[in-house]
Amino acid sequence: METADTPPHGGPTGRTGTTDAAPATAPVPQLSLELLVHGVGGTTPEKMLGDPRVERITGDDTAACYRRTDDADAEERPGDHLSEPVREAYCWSNLTSGNGARALWLILVPFMVANLAHWMRPAAPPEHRAQRIYDLLVRLLALTLTVLLAAAACEVALDLTAWQCAGTPVCVAGKSWLGFLSPDNAGWWSVPGRRLALASVVPLMVVGFLWWLSHRTWSAYESASPPPRRPGASRDTPAEERTALNLDGFWYGRRLVARLRAAHTTAGILTIAAALLVASLRTDRRAGDGTLVVLGQGLTASVVLLAAGTVLVVWRTARSEAAPDDGSDHPAVRALPYAALGVLALTAVHAGWARPGARSHGPLPGVAAFGGIAVLQGALVLALAVTAWFLWRAARDEARTALRGMGGPAVALLSCAVGGVLSGGVAVRFADWIGGPAAPGRDHAPIPGPPVLLSWQASVIPALLVVVAVVAVLAGIRVIVVRNRVAEDVPGLYDPRERPDALRTRRIAGTIARAGLTDAAPVLVAATAAVTLTLGAGAVAGAWITDQAPGRATAGAPPVLHAAAETAESLGSWLMGAGVILLLAMGRRAYRDHSARRTIGILWDVGTFWPRAAHPFAPPCYAERAVPDLTWRMATWTERFDGRLVISGHSQGSVLAAAAVWQLDLVTRSRVALLTYGSPLERLYGRWFPAYFGPPALTGLHREMDDWRNLWRFTDPIGGPIRLTCEDGRRIDEGPLRDPLAFGRTLQNPLPAQILGHGDYQADPVFDKVRAELIARLGPRIPPPRTEQEPAHGSSGRSSA
Fold it and tell me: pTM for the complete prediction?
């Protein structure tokens, strides 16, 4: 509410907070605006507004607000819009699925999942020390994913192509594009070091592409600044009900992403330089060339020094959300990638120096780095789990927190697993292709093939899929049991005069049972993460025990065991490659097919809501554009026109709406009502991201705004109740709504009513009823111009504790 020293909103209506107000006998008509925000998958403004004639009010081709053509000038004639609110649609689907090239972001899935782990920490008090440790561990884990990607690119280009195949006449035969690298030609590029230096261009292009993509999206997404806040008195919100989502700088991460981008780019370049160094150093030591050894050691020291600086930058790059972090970085941070490029150039010259008698034999030295990366990632995940456990024990409200606070570590582990599958799948499939019909790693193969760890990882994939299949079967059994139990209660929800229909009843009950599987998602995540950790540790141990391919490791075993190992390795190898091919195929199809592009866009609608706080190469956060858009629109419209505003969000749009309301200044926030339907705010975000959407945070949001109503259905697999009660005893939740609206055929519904599930909440009469109640309830909060004796704000019927 406003105080005596806080001016209310000014605007065309003449409310200036002075005694020069217009007479109370001639109040100016006040508009009401309903700001619609669509959910996942997107839609068109014509469908949102129910009119083929729409006009863009503000925005651009990426995200904009639209109105019906008849309502475009509603502010100029407010008297014509007193019975119904003016409807305005905010369309943001092009932020995620509008451009076909964005479908290629599918290859960035490991980075996106690692970034999610940052936001999934338990809701411990802000002063808890473990919070900083948790965030640091996630950032370090994200850095290992970049190193893993660069190492995989080096494995394909440097080891398999330039070192193994190009140095083996049998492998080069029939590959004209590799002929100039063959030692048989005695050409300038046939020297092993020069072959490696030339091949290093490929992983460098991969890292450069990620840098360019991150920089391009950084300029488009992280550059949307929040609106300025006006000073205002706050309702006394307890500290435990405050959330970082209402801080000025939460959706403005330009400097942080720029720092992480510099660090991760440097890490990728240094990985390439290290791959070049290990081969040349071993050759120089064997040849006893002291000068080249000293030069190599100097380059190694430079790589180690820059790597330490990179880790230091990542260590110190924590989010600062209290205010927009729009300062400039230290020149040393900006210079890190360029210094790494300089070291890489010197390393390439050093590697390409002529060394008489040098030849490439066996795998490239340093392939054991894959095992080191896997062990480091496992250690970081375990440390993250311990830290999350301490945070969960100190959490304010842990009753519905997913996996007892272990959601972040589980998701972080899955990001490492996905990264391993993608990198290993590319390496194994490429080795199969370039090595000819013989599979790499066998006695009769023309080249040794990729590191044995990748083959072990391929061998455990079928076992992981078996576990996932078992969980899926159990989920199916659960659906059948719940469906049979719910079917007994379905007819009682409708008019008893309607004739019972067993098939219709089973269909409705089955929809309700399948929608309930969302609440069982933690079980699937926990089972997958536990099996992944166990099998991953087994793969690392197996690769460490034996220095040969899994097929040889079981050569002395019984025939059945040997055949099982061979089958698991081959099947896993194909599955790893198939996963990569599937992602690329989906990206190619999405580039040509608009419907497929929208389907893939749904994945990003859910996965890229959060800012890039851990990994700068993750797909960009669309909310860093959408939330400021909505905040600016609500703040400027209420100030200019002094009207009533209801922001109405469906599905993911309700999450954007709530985040935008949190960003409003307290005076404006008290003048806005929130209507959510099909909302995952508590069911998904509250459970998996408790530090930001837990019950205390949602309670604080409702305390500081005029009113909030939420509609939900049992048949909705995404939305659910908020599970909060208003201060005056009224519940926020309105539901469960009846779905379908009619059980059978009636005079009003001659055809069977559709089961709506997650969509078309506006078709329910309750929707219009609740919206009208919000508009009516919001009205008394904006009184006509007042005199000096009148209070600054009228009472809304709710205490402002």
Answer: 0.86
